[in-house]
């Protein structure tokens, strides 16, 4: 266990982040004082509706788009499901082919698996050894019956940022709809939807110091509407029935506003720490293999993803946890069998490399002292895990 004097260090900001105090303060009145249902006609309802409208305007202005383009959801998982399943159903007469990548978040990957089982054709584009989509492969995959291309912007495991503007342009030239999951980059990098050739974009509040359980789907004005997943009261322009999570939505608006305001200061500082962490791990740990590009400007700010073979990422997570340091491993644990990370395998790497993964994700509260402390304990932990693994 960490000794009482040793600091607890959180390096898992890609999984989730604490709610910012200003965000919490903005949300609190909407959990108690302003409790009307935005659909109600009376003044309580009108007050809630006004706050909802303001939040929608704020989110839209942070993205440089129109409020009508923003659909609030219960998070990015729902937004991704809505765009994929919803368009698959609303555009069936146009075609049944969807293009995505081999390194999507589970909420896109598994949704495509399901659509595939139901008869849609899915093309999963390969990536190069740093995790970038090959534009030629995308170009060649587009067919007359392609209804949608869905490509993650910043990868949640290996951190690779796709050149979304160039990919989107290419898709638009072929008159196909384009969706991107921007959960890991939103609030960390600038977004201007008047310039970005995307038709749909997913975002979530809890990766950028907002509450869990709230996100949004941007739908470009004039783009086809997905068939709703949730039907009922007709909220969110009939696309997402259910009484709105007003406090959460207020939190999402506040957090985006803050992130945009702080970005010029936070992002370069976090990138400097990220560079320091990556360089020192590569220098000090034998066989450490960086996954994703070496240039931090091509990675999600704060992301550092390594393989430390041989061994299991989960064992390293637990060993670091005993030292009070929170990180994550990319591979998923299914029925007690540790699966190698499918994202790392998509880079062309072996099962051994794809099993020995660790993701460090720095955030707004990370400091140089945190990175120094990690580098103090990590070499011995990795070496112990290698010995333990070989002894098995
Ligand atoms: N997409 C990406 C890239 C993510 O990192 C996550 C969160 N792990 C999600 C989607 C799902 O987000 P949420 O938790 O809001 O459903």
Across the major sheet, the strand order is: 2-8-7-6-5-3-4
Percent range for β-strand residues? 5-15%
Taking pLDDT < 50 over at least 5 consecutive residues as the criterion, the unreliable ranges are: 331-335
Number of helices: 11
Shape: globular
**Which cofactor or ligand species appear?**
4'-deoxy-4'-aminopyridoxal-5'-phosphate
Percentage of residues in helical conformation: 25-40%
Calculate the terminal CA-CA distance, rounded to whole Å: 24 Å
Describe the structure.
The structure is a single chain. This protein is an alpha/beta fold. About 40% of the residues lie in helices and about 15% in strands. The strands form 4 sheets. A 7-stranded mixed sheet has the order 2-8-7-6-5-3-4, sandwiched between helices. Strands 9-10-14 form a 3-stranded antiparallel sheet. Strands 1-11 form a two-stranded parallel ribbon. Helix 4 links the parallel strand 3 and strand 4 (about 120-125). Helix 3 packs parallel to helix 4 (about 105-115), helix 7 packs across helix 11 and helix 8 crosses helix 11 (about 370-390). The protein starts with 8 loop residues before the first strand and ends with a helix. The model is unreliable at about 330-335 (pLDDT under 50). The site of 4'-deoxy-4'-aminopyridoxal-5'-phosphate (PMP) has 12 residues, from helix 3. 4'-deoxy-4'-aminopyridoxal-5'-phosphate binds near residues 183 and 215.
């Amino acid at each position: 266990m960490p000794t009482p004097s040793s600091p607890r260090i959180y390096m898992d900001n890609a999984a989730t982040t604490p709610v910012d105090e200003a965000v919490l303060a903005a949300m609190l009145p909407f959990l108690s004082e302003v409790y009307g249902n935005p659909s109600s006609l009376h003044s309580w309802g009108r007050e809630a509706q006004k706050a909802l409208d303001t939040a929608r305007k704020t989110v839209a202005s942070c993205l440089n788009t129109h409020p009508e383009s923003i659909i609030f959801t219960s998070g990015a998982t729902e937004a991704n499901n809505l765009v994929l399943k919803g368009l698959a159903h609303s555009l069936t007469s146009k075609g049944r082919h969807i293009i995505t990548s081999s390194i999507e978040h589970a909420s896109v990957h598994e949704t495509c698996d399901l659509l595939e089982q139901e008869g849609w054709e899915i093309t999963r584009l390969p990536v190069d050894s740093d995790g970038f989509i090959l534009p030629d492969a995308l170009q060649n995959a587009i067919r007359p019956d392609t209804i949608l291309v869905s490509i993650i912007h910043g990868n949640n495991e290996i951190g690779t940022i796709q050149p979304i503007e160039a990919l989107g342009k290419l898709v638009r030239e072929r008159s196909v709809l384009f969706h991107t999951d921007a959960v890991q980059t939103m609030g960390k990098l600038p977004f201007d939807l008047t310039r970005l050739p995307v038709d749909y974009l997913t975002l979530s509040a809890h990766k950028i110091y907002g509450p869990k359980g709230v996100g949004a789907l941007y739908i470009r004005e004039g783009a086809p509407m997905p068939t709703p997943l949730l039907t009922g009261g007709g909220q969110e322009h009939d696309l997402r029935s259910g009484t709105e999570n007003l406090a959460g939505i207020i939190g999402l608006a506040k957090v985006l506003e803050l992130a945009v305001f702080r970005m010029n200061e936070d992002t370069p500082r976090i990138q400097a720490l990220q560079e320091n962490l990556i360089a020192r791990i590569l220098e000090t740990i034998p066989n450490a293999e960086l996954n994703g590009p070496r240039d931090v400007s091509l990675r999600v700010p704060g992301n550092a993803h390594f393989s430390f073979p041989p061994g299991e990422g989960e064992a390293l997570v637990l060993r670091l946890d005993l030292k009070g340091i929170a990180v994550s491993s990319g591979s998923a644990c299914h029925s007690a069998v540790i699966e190698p990370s499918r994202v790392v395998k998509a880079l062309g790497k072996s099962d051994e490399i794809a099993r020995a993964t660790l993701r460090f994700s720095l955030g707004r509260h990370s400091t140089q002292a945190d990175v120094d402390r990690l580098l103090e304990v990590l070499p011995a932990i990795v070496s112990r895990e290698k010995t333990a693994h070989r002894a098995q």
